[in-house]
Amino acid sequence: MKFLSLIPLCFLLCLCVHRNLKGDSNSRGTDNIDEWGRLHPDPERWPSSKGWKGFKNVADKVHDMDLKFGIHLMAGISTQAYDSNTPILDTKTGKAYEESGKVWHAKDIGVPGRACKWMSNGFMALNVTSGAGKAFLRSLYELYISWGLDFVKLDCVFGEDIDFEEITYVSQILKELKPSIVFSLSPGVSATPNMAKVVNGLVNMYRVTGDDWDQWSQVVTHFDVARDYAAAKLIGAQGLNGNSWPDLDMLPFGWLTDPGQDIYIAFFNLNDKATTISWKFDDLVKALPGKKLVKGLDGREVWSLNRVVLNDVLSAEVAAHGCALFVFDY
Ligand SMILES: *[C@@H]1O[C@H](CO)[C@@H](O)[C@H](O)[C@H]1NC(C)=O
Asked: Which InterPro entries does the annotation name (predicted)?
């Protein structure tokens, strides 16, 4: 498909790279943390990280290929750091954080009553109001940025796990330490346009839907959500050092059509300028081998409501970061 070649190449390391292979994704005590309670990659999975080198070597390699390097992080603090009650690094002194005559530890800043909703054994919220909470976040991002980050996806901080204070403080740190970083939030369960309006200026992307797994019933819910965020003028609204975008995430690329009679074709333009995207009738025939298709299918583009007829080629100019959705009667 032609539009696939337009996707800006980005290498995003996904979930749980810090958990070792023996624990399941929500098990306690299977993370790799340093003496300051900060998560590092599991050296069994990432041998180049041995000796607390983190993802520096991986990021260098990714940059050599002209790609961007991003990681997925969980907000708050890991249960493992909390259980181990690790001290907090004050990066200004290089020593443990001290305030009001005491050395602060993970148990002084973790909030076990606010566990991450979807990984409740792994992570809990952090008291960002406290000086020690802020010092912990700063120590995390100084470390991760030193590996060469271009993109941060911060999970368990939006939607049903909204933590406005952590989003605000992380945004401030990123702006100060590396303004070119793209800052993305997750998860999107229970996100609303009103919630997005509070954070859009602090970030570049935020999930607005939960996960979907290649089922039409899950995909179809995205359309109403996209409409609501568009109506609220949030698409391309002001963001951190630039613009911000509601993120539908996990939209399946591939062959997926509804159980009814209609045929849907969507174009996504991930390019930062308007781009003409085309699709051939022959591709549709290959995608839907069970259907007897004839040229001249009648349909409409749902956002513009323009009528379209599918003959040899379907072509449309799509706005930067925009999409077009065609529905054909069959
Ligand atoms: C968070 O820290 C502040 C400042 O130290 C403190 O006043 C507040 O009670 C703490 N909140 C929680 C939930 O621990």
From this structure: Aldolase_TIM, GH, Glyco_hydro_27, Melibiase_C
With a cut of 50, say whether residue 300 has pLDDT above it.
yes
129 CA distance to ligand 1 centroid (A)? 6
Task: Name the average pLDDT for the chain.
Answer: 89
- Based on the fold, state whether residues 157 and 18 are members of the same structural domain: yes
Alpha carbon of 133 to ligand 1 centroid (Å):
9
3-class DSSP assignment, residue 233: coil
**What pTM did the predictor assign?**
0.80
Ligand 1: residue of 88, 108, 130, 137 to mutate (most ligand atoms within 8 A of CB) is: 130
What integer pLDDT is reported at residue 23 of this predicted model?
Answer: 66
Dump pLDDT digits (tens) for 174-191.
999 999 999 999 998 999
- Residue at 142 is within a domain: yes
User: What is the mean pLDDT of the segment spanning 212-238?
Assistant: 88
> Nearest-CA neighbor of 182 among 218, 206, 158?
206
Going by CA atoms, what residue is nearest to atom 5 of ligand 1?
Answer: 130
- Whether residue 215 is contained in a domain is answered as no
pLDDT at 263: 85
The ligand 1 site (C-beta within 6 Å) comprises 111, 127, 129-130
Q: Which residue among 127, 134, 137, 163 has the greatest number of ligand 1 atoms within 8 angstroms of its CB, and so is best to mutate? A: 127
C-alpha distance across the termini of the chain, in Å = 22
Query: Residue 144: inside a domain, yes or no?
Result: yes
Cis check for the bond before 8: say yes or no (omega within 30 of 0).
Answer: no
Q: What is the mean pLDDT of residues 90-100?
A: 98
Q: Ligand 1, residue 132: give the atom nearest the CA.
A: 5
Q: What share of the chain is helix, strand, coil (3-state, %, to 5)?
A: 30, 30, 45
